[in-house]
Design a protein that fits this description.
This protein has 335 residues and is of the alpha/beta class. The chain has two domains: 165 residues, Quinone Oxidoreductase, Chain A, domain 1, CATH 3.90.180.10; 132 residues, Rossmann fold. The chain has 13 helices and 15 strands. Strands 3, 4, 5, 6, 7, 14 and 15 form a seven-stranded mixed β-sheet that branches. β11, α9 and β12 form a beta-alpha-beta unit. The chain starts with a strand and ends with a strand.
């Protein structure tokens, strides 16, 4: 199969690797849509790897002896390789599993964990059957397009009585706009990139605040009657943005941190009585609500997906992402 490989800073190639093998409850998925996430950072720095990607959707191509999915079934591939038997996994919070498994060892396979590839392998219970009325591309947004901030919206119980500030309007933050607007909330975006600020307005953001403006926090407070946002979703992992998110929340408000990394300043947490949430993905028990969200927002999701590239042009896709003039970018592994 064809796989994307980073070979150095701003350098990559498409290489041939063996097709994956499956056993037990694992299935092999022929990937038809590979959404791109933060792998462009590895491309920029030259972190050599051919194990790239964690988002995918496609068609079940082969199954192990005990797999419950069937060949030919369209599925979304959930991230990670959790154990499936611990308390967290059984509760639907598999993303926080502390007992992950080695799929290559279990399947006796040399490949299968990358999604910038033509095939991947996954446990059957992490392959979500796609409803007939939802396209594979739109269903793929159940991964990082909508997934992390869907989880944040669920945990913070965002609703129509809330004003939600979304700090950072990259692809994940743009997904947060869709999630919050769909739930009826008023959405204020915090973003300095004009392209993404304009796209956020198309997706449902009612106001945009430029964080580079020295009066950004005051402006946000003015937009919320001096109180601050009821709920804040931070999507950048930049320390200054994380500090802004905490300062932007009203007293007794809530802040969800979706961006990985950074250094969170908590000076305002205790006097503000804030609730802080670490949100990586979403609970599998919310699958019906995820499909409802995707089904109800076809126009917004089509706008969120701004570019499509064949795998053979992954370098051009990474360069586009580095420039920031895009929303969610999709790869076609067979192109």
């Amino acid at each position: 199969m064809k796989v994307a490989a980073i070979t150095g800073p701003h350098a990559c190639e498409i290489i041939e690797r063996p097709d994956p093998l499956v056993k037990a409850n694992f299935a092999r998925v022929k990937i038809t849509v590979a959404p791109m996430c933060t792998e462009f950072k590895a491309y920029k720095e030259g972190w050599k790897s051919d194990g790239l990607g964690h988002e995918a959707a496609g068609v079940v191509d082969a199954v192990g002896e005990s797999a419950s999915v069937r060949v030919g079934q369209r599925v979304v591939v959930m991230p990670q390789y959790p154990c499936g038997t611990c308390e967290l996994c059984l509760a639907g919070d598999y993303i926080h599993c502390e007992h992950t498994v080695d799929p290559l060892q279990l399947c006796g396979s040399a490949t299968g964990t990358a999604t910038y590839a033509q095939y991947c392998i996954k446990q059957d219970w992490l392959l979500l059957p796609i409803p007939d009325d939802i396209s594979t591309e739109h269903a793929a947004m159940a991964c990082c397009g909508l997934g992390p901030t869907f989880g944040a919206a669920e945990r913070m119980e965002i609703n129509r009585f809330d004003t939600v500030a979304v700090v950072g309007l990259g692809p994940v933050g743009l997904g947060a706009v869709i999630n919050a607007a769909f739930r009826g909330a008023r959405v204020i975006g915090v973003e300095g990139n004009p392209y993404r600020a304009a796209l956020a307005r198309e997706l449902g953001a009612q106001e945009i605040v430029d964080p580079a403006d020295p009066d950004a926090l005051r402006l946000l407070k003015e937009l919320t009657g001096g109180r601050g946002a009821d709920k804040v979703i931070e999507c950048t992992a930049i320390p200054a943005a994380q500090a802004f998110a905490i300062q932007a929340a009203r007293r007794r408000g809530a802040v969800a941190f979706v961006g990985w990394g950074g250094h969170i300043e908590l000076d305002n947490m205790i006097p503000g009585g804030l609730s802080l949430y670490g949100c990586w993905h979403w609970n599998l028990h919310g699958q019906t609500r995820m499909w409802q969200t995707i089904r109800a927002n076809p126009v917004q999701i089509e706008r969120l997906i701004t570019h499509r590239f064949p795998l053979s042009q992954v370098q051009a896709a990474w360069e586009l992402q580095l420039g920031g003039q895009c929303g969610k970018v999709l790869l076609d592994p067979w192109g």
